[in-house]
């Protein structure tokens, strides 16, 4: 595979994650020697690849989990734990109830992905719109 421009690589990765194409995620991550620091997106893609048992996904999961733990942003540890559980190298994280304002959550999930979005605090259930995340 030819080396892609970063913008094109990111577009293709987002498309592969959206389609749930684990093999394409693995291929894109192998083709890029220094992936962009989109670790949440990469982690979501690697989780898909692990679920589909795509060849090479386990090593990518270990690399992604290590990068997430090193970066240590909100949600990084939880995603790293999820990847470890899916790869069989750590315990599967237990789910717990979380009170969330579903109207606020739907507002950040619906619409154009370039203008909507945000984050959900997994400890408090607070929904953060994209503008608040980018401002912080």
Q: Which helices and strands, and how do they pair?
A:
Blueprint: H1 6-19, H2 22-31, H3 39-51, H4 57-71, H5 76-87, H6 102-109, E1 118-120, E2 127-129, H7 130-135
Antiparallel strand pairs: 1-2
Helix pairs in contact: 1-2, 1-3, 2-3, 3-4, 3-5, 4-5
Features:
mainly alpha, globular, two-stranded antiparallel ribbon, 7 helices
Task: Write structural notes for this entry.
With 136 residues, the chain is mainly alpha-helical. 57% of the residues lie in helices and 4% in strands. The chain has a two-stranded antiparallel ribbon. β1 (118-120) and β2 form a beta hairpin. The longest helix is centred in the middle third of the chain and has 15 residues, at 57-71. It is globular and about 40 Å long. The mean pLDDT is 84.
Précis, in short:
The protein is mostly helical and 136 residues long. Helices cover 57% and strands 4% of the residues. The protein is globular.
Helix content: 55-70%
Order of helices and strands: HHHHHHEEH
Biggest beta sheet summary: 2 strands, antiparallel
Shape: globular
What's the average pLDDT? 84
Helix-and-strand structural type: mainly alpha
Count of individual beta strands = 2
Strand order of the largest sheet: 1-2
- Beta content comes to under 5%
Low-confidence stretches: none
What is the CA-based Rg, rounded? Answer: 15 Å
Q: If helices are DSSP runs of H or I spanning 4 or more residues, what is the number of helices? A: 7
């Amino acid at each position: 595979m030819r080396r892609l421009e970063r913008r094109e690589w990111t577009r293709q990765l987002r498309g592969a994650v959206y389609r749930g194409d684990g093999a394409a995620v693995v291929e894109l991550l192998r083709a890029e020697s220094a992936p962009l620091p989109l670790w949440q997106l990469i982690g979501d893609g690697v989780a898909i690849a692990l679920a589909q048992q795509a060849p090479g996904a386990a090593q990518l999961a270990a690399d992604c989990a290590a990068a997430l733990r090193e970066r240590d942003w909100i949600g990084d540890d939880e995603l790293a734990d999820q990847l470890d559980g899916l790869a069989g190298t750590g315990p599967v994280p237990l789910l717990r109830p979380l009170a969330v304002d579903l109207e606020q959550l739907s507002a950040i999930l619906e619409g154009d992905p370039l203008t909507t979005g945000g984050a959900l605090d997994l400890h408090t259930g607070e929904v953060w719109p994209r503008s608040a995340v980018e401002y912080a």
